Amino acid sequence: MIAVKDLKKVYHQANREIRALDGVTLEVPDDSVHGVIGQSGAGKSTLVRCLALLDRPTSGTVEINGVDLAHVRSSDLRRARRRLGVVFQHANLFDSRTIADNVAYPLELAGVERRERAAKVTELLGLVGLGDAAAAHPAQLSGGQRQRVGIARALATDPDVLLCDEPTSALDPRTTDEILDLIADIKARLGLAVLVITHEMHVVKRICDSVSLLEAGLVVESGPLAGVVGRLGGRLSEMLLQLPPAAPLPATLGATLEVLDTTQPGDTAALTAAERHFDADLPVLAGTVEHLDGTTFSRMRVLVPPSLDPAVVVSHLKGLGAESTISAPSIDEVA
Fold first, then answer.
1. How far apart are alpha carbons 72 and 190 in whole angstroms?
2. Taking the model in full, what pTM does it have?
3. Which residues, 6+ apart, have CB-to-CB distance to 144 below 8 Å?
4. Dist CA 88 CA 32 (whole Å)
5. What is the CATH number of domain 241-333?
6. What residues does each domain of the chain span?
7. Is the model's pLDDT at 253 over the cut of 70?
8. What top-level class would CATH report for the domain 2-234?
9. CA atoms within 13 A on the CB side of 215
10. 187-228: per-residue pLDDT in tens?
């Protein structure tokens, strides 16, 4: 388990104080994947550096299974880093070394004897699907294969936590999904706590159990995927279940009809039940369905006819397990 509490990193430039991290707190239990998503400048790179002990936090703690790595002595830093495996955006392999030697490098630093290193490398290359590539060099591999080598190397010292820094941003969509599925498989096999830093919501949807939104060095929203999806109006909910553009309403109707946004586990069952209950149509303007953390969620934007009280419809939908909110039609939705 990794537990980050009130992590702060302050840089000083001339007479300016830059708070790159301003009190980040999050937890990742064993056998789970937590995504940290944010745009450029949000503090993701600084967070990676502090978690990987490449940079000392100004304050706060980074605990792995109860041991605070942020405050280990400099002499113990190398040993402390072995508790954390890091997968970089680019594999950062040694071009002059074979694939086997790249994976063995952390074991060499740890003083593991040659025979034990060789056995571990064989095991790890098999785990990532590269058992026949041991004698190859990085230039002979595809981008996805090099990233697999990077993952194998990150696992060499049997870490408790796997930290993945934008692990798929340099890959094509198909290879991206293959690498994400590999990370999820490794998590399941080894029971690791995995923290994924990303700017791509697809990564979160594909493998994460929980997610945090990082902005200006702060976690502004966080929680299990199933929890944040249900927070209508929340940033993460909108990002996870993003509606496609809706068909425009005739301008003559825009002022008389109400629009509801509704989110629910499953498909459209709640909406269908509401239509039967009120004996009225609730036409869908736009909708989307996503499979998140083992559960299917749907979001729809629906019209409420003048014969119905929107508040009553919202209340009834909530009783059916669908969170809903009333929203006026946007300018784009009125022809």
1. 26
2. 0.89
3. 171, 175, 178, 179
4. 19
5. 3.30.70.260
6. 2-234, 241-333
7. no
8. alpha beta
9. 6
10. 999 999 999 999 999 999 999 999 999 999 999 999 999 899
